[in-house]
Write a structure and sequence with these properties.
alpha/beta, 466 residues
């Protein structure tokens, strides 16, 4: 987009999903969108070997994955070693009892139209086929990068369901910078906002900007001028109703979320004409991608767990807007490219060395000057997935769910909750993983309510500016 021209985009919406690689989700579309660097039709398939067995890329990826591949930092390093040849072997090492069928899932991809919402967007808007995770590691540090441009030297997830390894992330965030300029923002969430790991977000004045996902649809249907300038969507991370695409949740639930978000924005013509929707994934989740991650600029001096001189695995990313053409953009992006766009767009103060580095290109470079009028009027919403198994396996929560539970425990300590209620919840936790999810959700509701009350009391004090 021409930086000298008036900026027609007044609203930026980011929908960040979970743990899928570019090849798995969008690679098959190379058969019809030839510019995509994905699965080349008519060519010998790429392969990985594990325990002397060769596994080839092929269609038919499961909607409900049989296992959650490991994607912590040491495992990602093994996966991308020797030209990305270690994905299946790493899975076999983590799940030694797995069979060939389960291991083959690491190399499988979704055929055209298997993902009706994502594939329709890819056919009609701008596919970024060089968008990488910000670091070779799991969900939390990559999500910290999209919110602040750094993870303060961390590449690990919290361990266990209490507070082990739950670090103090007090860095300046995008939301702090937006507050400085009095630019409106909101975070819409499904169940437990992972962004609460950022200390500054827990302040009452920021808590007032958190809303359940239903409010997104209400706000999108309202006056365009009242919709926030920046909106970030956190999906539902836990069952029932999980729609984040995290293995082993049903991918069709993520498709429902994508379609519903697009349809809500598209139905409001004034909002649509002034909007950029970014659909992107936080990291690859242990699934194969054939493009090796490139080098990167460290965001700051923090190197407690990693040097941050390399990006993570390539992830799906689509820019959706009247100003996003039907094309493939091959510019190298990572999550800080979004921050670079916002910093330049709104004249925000610095968000770290990687955002400011000349090698970090703004996603604004992928937009066009002239608006289109041929965007799909709506996306087909897949039917709700049939529940064929217990909402949560009886064994344990995933590492992401465990970390969210730890976060809920941390925020509970900041609330004024009846000690008897806390004790009752603690005993309820012992009954199983689904009970832990229920308790975590209750903690979130308590904290959100109390922080909002604190904000209202603050602005109602005599002499306080409203």
């Amino acid at each position: 987009m021409n930086a000298a021209a008036p900026d027609p985009i007044k609203h930026v919406i980011v929908l960040m999903l979970e743990n899928r690689s570019f090849d798995q989700m969008l690679g098959s579309l190379q058969s019809e969108i030839t510019d995509i660097d994905g699965i080349p039709p008519g060519q010998p398939p790429r392969t990985n070997r594990a325990d002397k067995v060769t596994y080839s890329q092929g269609p038919g990826a499961a909607y409900v994955a049989p296992a959650d591949p490991d994607h912590d930092y040491p495992h990602v390093l093994m996966q991308i070693a020797n030209g990305n040849s270690g994905f299946v072997q790493d899975f076999a090492n983590v799940f030694p009892q797995s069979g060939k069928t389960d291991r083959a899932e690491i190399m499988k991809y979704h055929a055209p139209d298997a993902l009706p919402a994502l594939h329709t967007l890819a056919r009609n808007f701008t596919v970024c086929d060089r968008w990488f995770a910000s670091l070779p590691g799991p969900t939390w540090p990559n999500r910290l990068f999209v919110h602040s441009g750094t993870s303060l030297g961390r590449v690990t997830m919290p361990e266990g369901v209490m507070n082990a390894n739950l670090h103090w992330y007090n860095q300046t965030t995008l939301y702090d910078r937006l507050n400085e300029k009095k630019i409106s923002w909101k975070i819409y969430f499904g169940d437990i906002p992972q962004s609460w790991i950022l200390v500054n977000q827990l302040a009452p004045r920021n808590m007032i900007n958190y809303h359940h996902m239903q409010r997104f649809y209400e706000h999108a249907a309202g006056p365009e001028a009242k919709f926030p300038a920046y909106a970030f969507i956190e999906p539902t991370y836990n069952p029932p109703g999980a729609n984040d695409d995290h293995p082993s949740h049903n991918v069709l639930e993520g498709e429902r979320l994508i379609a519903e978000v697009y349809n809500a924005v598209r139905a409001n013509q004034a909002l649509w004409e002034s909007c950029l929707l970014v659909v992107v994934y936080d990291e690859h989740g242990g699934y194969y991608d054939h493009v090796s991650p490139p080098p990167a600029v460290p965001p700051d001096h923090h190197q407690e767990e990693f040097t941050f001189d390399r990006l993570g695995v390539r992830v799906p990313a689509i820019l959706v807007s009247p100003y996003a053409a039907k094309r493939v953009v091959k510019t190298q992006f990572d999550h800080t490219s979004l921050l670079r766009y916002l910093v330049e767009k709104w004249g925000l103060q610095s968000l770290g060395a990687r955002v400011a580095d000349a090698g970090t290109t703004s996603i604004g470079s992928a937009l066009v000057d002239a608006a289109r009028d041929d965007a799909p009027a709506s996306l087909s919403v897949p039917p709700m997935a049939v529940q064929t198994a217990p909402p949560v396996p009886a064994t344990a929560l995933s590492s992401h769910q465990s970390a969210l539970f730890a976060l809920s425990h941390s925020v509970e300590s900041m609330t004024d909750v009846d000690p008897n209620e806390v004790a009752a919840r603690s005993s309820h936790v012992l009954t199983g993983p689904q009970s832990m999810i229920d308790v975590a959700t209750e903690r979130v509701e308590d904290f959100l309510s109390q922080q909002r009350d604190a904000f209202m009391k603050e602005i109602e004090r005599p002499g306080t500016s409203k």
